[in-house]
Design goal:
6-stranded mixed β-sheet
Length: 445
């Protein structure tokens, strides 16, 4: 049973959620700060009111207050139930109080502000004496009244949030949708493209945030286009080059099938074998050239010894060279450490030595030398004219009139391997201006 595709998140939804969450948090923090600050300011204001009320009562208290028995001041308005006062003679005899004031002292404190609990309710009380310290006046206010004022301020800040947040969410949704419209349009344009359309996307009218994406896509299209073109050319050239040896093998097989005697049949079969070897060599070179494309090459680089690689490569190619009467010599007195890919360096040397054996003079000598971080292969053949040396590294290029069969890939592989290693390839003449000398200079380890 196929696994369910992972749920994809919405960029628009994330932006909206983040924006509204940040807005709500800021709003709540503002409301909390306003509540605390308002409560503090309300307490200061009401404290001043209590002190002012007490001062007014003290100022109105006369000397005849002492002759009045206990009286009750009238209750003034709805909010007067939460504000009370008491006048105590000598601090011990209650002479006058508001209707809703208790019979006991509001606060044991005789000067300044205090907080007390009366009947389970909190009170803020201000106490003061008259100038003669005959009457103690205490004015109190319930904490409940103060809390209601502060809560009303906080409620006035929070209630609009309940109605404004959905409206802001809708507006933010519309703004975000409009802002993301270029991304959606870009996605539709890429989706509607034909597979072979790798032209650049226009970036002039795109927002600044989308331009890097468009440029990256254009760069990707360019790389993919180059890769497709390179592979298309490579496939066409390889098909063309393989057609010749395969046709030759087929022809020689037909000749062998129709040969009237064993000698002609054997000769035709030898040609079939030679053609098969040529096709196999061509396929091997094509595969080697194809393997040089991956970008992971740098991860496989390690220290290696040019002298050791040259010795092993010569041992591999010596039997075939001896069949042509060609001798391969190695001049490597000391180790030649370099940084590189041993198998690819071996392929480079194999192509150079194979070319030198096939294109050099029959019965001649192919000389391989390593000095420091460079290796050179010299043959005794006709060499390459200076005007042709710049092109021999191209794929499938062969000098007109070259007699030995080949595919024109050998030096192309050498150039590619050298480029991957950051090495330099130089073509020159051999000793006495005879033959070809190919030198590859690597970076020392």
């Amino acid at each position: 049973m196929p696994e369910a595709a992972p749920a994809r998140y919405s960029l628009k939804g994330r932006l909206l959620a983040g924006l509204l969450s940040a807005l709500a948090l800021v709003w709540l923090a503002t409301a909390l700060y306003s509540y605390v600050d308002t409560r503090h300011e309300v307490n200061r204001l009401l404290d001043a009111h209590l002190a002012q009320s007490a001062s007014m009562i003290v100022a109105q208290a006369g000397h005849d207050l002492g002759e009045i028995d206990l009286e009750h001041a009238p209750q003034l308005g709805e909010h007067s139930r939460r504000v009370v006062f008491q006048i105590w003679e000598r601090g011990g005899v209650l002479r006058l109080h508001s209707t809703n004031a208790p019979q006991a002292r509001l606060s044991p404190r005789e000067e300044g502000f205090s907080r007390v609990k009366i009947g389970g309710n909190g009170w803020r009380v201000y106490s003061t004496w008259d100038d003669e310290r005959r009457f103690l006046v205490q004015v109190g206010e319930r904490d409940e009244a103060r809390e209601e004022i502060a809560a009303g301020v906080a409620r006035n800040l929070l209630v609009p949030l309940v109605f404004a947040l959905p409206v802001l969410g809708l507006l933010a949704w519309l703004v975000i949708a409009r802002a993301l419209a270029p991304l959606r349009a870009l996605g539709r344009e890429v989706e509607a493209r034909e597979p072979g359309n790798l032209g650049e996307l226009p970036a002039e009218d795109e927002p600044a945030e989308v331009v890097p994406l468009v440029r990256s896509l254009n760069a990707l299209f360019g790389r993919v286009g180059s890769l497709i073109e390179r592979e298309r050319r490579f496939t066409a050239d390889a098909a063309h080059e393989l057609r010749t040896p395969l046709a030759a093998i087929k022809t020689q097989a037909q000749v062998a099938s129709a040969a009237p005697d064993d000698a002609k049949r054997r000769h035709a079969l030898d040609n079939v074998v030679a053609g098969s070897d040529r096709a196999a060599r061509l396929v091997e070179q094509l595969l080697t050239l194809a393997r040089l494309e991956p970008d992971q090459f740098k991860e496989r680089v390690r220290p290696c010894d040019l002298r050791e690689i040259a010795r092993n490569t010569i041992a591999e190619l010596a039997p075939g060279a001896l069949e042509r009467g060609t001798e391969i010599e190695l001049d490597a007195e000391a180790a030649a450490p370099v940084e590189g890919h041993p198998e690819l360096i071996a392929a480079l040397l194999r192509n150079l030595i194979d070319n030198a054996v096939r294109y050099g003079r029959a019965g001649g000598i192919v000389r391989v030398e390593t000095h420091g971080a460079s290796v050179s292969v010299t043959d005794q053949g006709p060499g390459i004219p200076p005007e042709e040396r710049a092109r021999v590294g191209e794929r499938f290029y062969r000098i007109v009139g070259t007699e030995p069969s080949g595919s024109g890939l050998g030096l192309s592989i050498v150039e590619r391997i050298a480029t991957l290693h950051g090495a330099q390839v130089a073509l020159g003449e051999g000793p006495g201006s005879r033959g070809l000398r190919v030198t590859v200079a690597f970076r020392a380890s």
